[in-house]
Amino acid sequence: MNTQPKQRVGRYDLISPMMACRDEILDKFEKFLDSGQYILGQEVRLLEEELAAACGCAEAVGVASGSSALFLALAMAGVRPGDEVITTPYTFDATIEAIILLDAVPVLVDIKPTDLNIDPVKIEEAITEKTRCILPVHIFGAPADMHVIQDIADRHGLEVVADMAQAFGTLYDGKPCGAFGRMNTLSFYPTKNLPGIGDGGMVFCRDTEDAERIRKIRGHQAVRMNGHLYTGWNSRLDEVQAMVIRIRHARFQDEQRDRDEVARIYDSHIPQAHRLQTPNGGQGMKVTHHQYWVRAADRGGLRAKLDAAGIDTGVYYDPPMNHHELAEYCRMPGSLAEAERAGREVLALPIHAALPFDDAQRIGRLVGDFVSSESSTES
Fold first, then answer.
1. Beta strands in the chain (DSSP E)
2. Which end of the chain is less enclosed by CB atoms within 10 A, N or C?
3. pTM of the predicted structure, to 2 decimals
């Protein structure tokens, strides 16, 4: 690992990890060109098999994007026009877009301050006779409390479809996120921990019948289920993307170890009250840290301090989805105070496989000093 700090520390480095496998990608691409097998060939099939095994599910189906994966999974879970899907407001637009495109109603409930994931207590309070599905999002790579969520779903006869776009490699109770719920969805967008070089997504299915239906739909075949006819459309994962993702998957553990070390360094400097706390005190949990976030009441001051030190940061979901233009399609049965607070206070720090550890130490010290000083002033 290069320990020389860069002139400016970026939040992402999409190029260095790709350059490490450049020759392998180019070699396989040349063979791919000669094969003539450009759509749904061997690379997609092998990727589906490899990731299904890695994620603890029966089958995986490659699709065109993470957004397509959400739409297809919710449709196959039986979400119909007028149904309600309970989810989090502290998420990317695609989460509620998929629900709205099915003519269903997103029901936004609050999050927990400790991990920024959907609050199971709020889920139960929001259930009505129209509720069909619960859609947790494993935000920033931290696992939602799936045992509690599944128990709620089982007691009320609901489906669970989880958005794990940011959580490949995350473990909950010692198992991959894909082992929980009826289906899970993944994105291979280039900023993700397991990236492609363009758009791509995947649906992880515990039921092989769900996988068979999604394979038909992604290739323009209509599917009839529960008395409803679902039209087919084009949602195929590109063969070139699958090739690149397979190469990156073979290197995933090595890259993740570097990200883990950056997170460990940050943890050593930043007080726990200002960063992620996993469910059950972290028992059986493994967080992939798609983002490493810190909470500061004076986020603007912290961001300015880091910017002056040559460090890029990011703000997510400020304001949360209840302030989005699409909120008019949503139902919000209670307070979203924690989601609002997270929108105001949470700041994402640089974290990626090529981040020099010396930079991580410097960032951790700057952030730790700032939030500790802020806490002292408040007390």
1. 59-63, 84-87, 105-108, 131-135, 159-163, 171-172, 175-176, 183-187, 201-205, 223-225, 228-230, 292-295, 346-349
2. C
3. 0.95
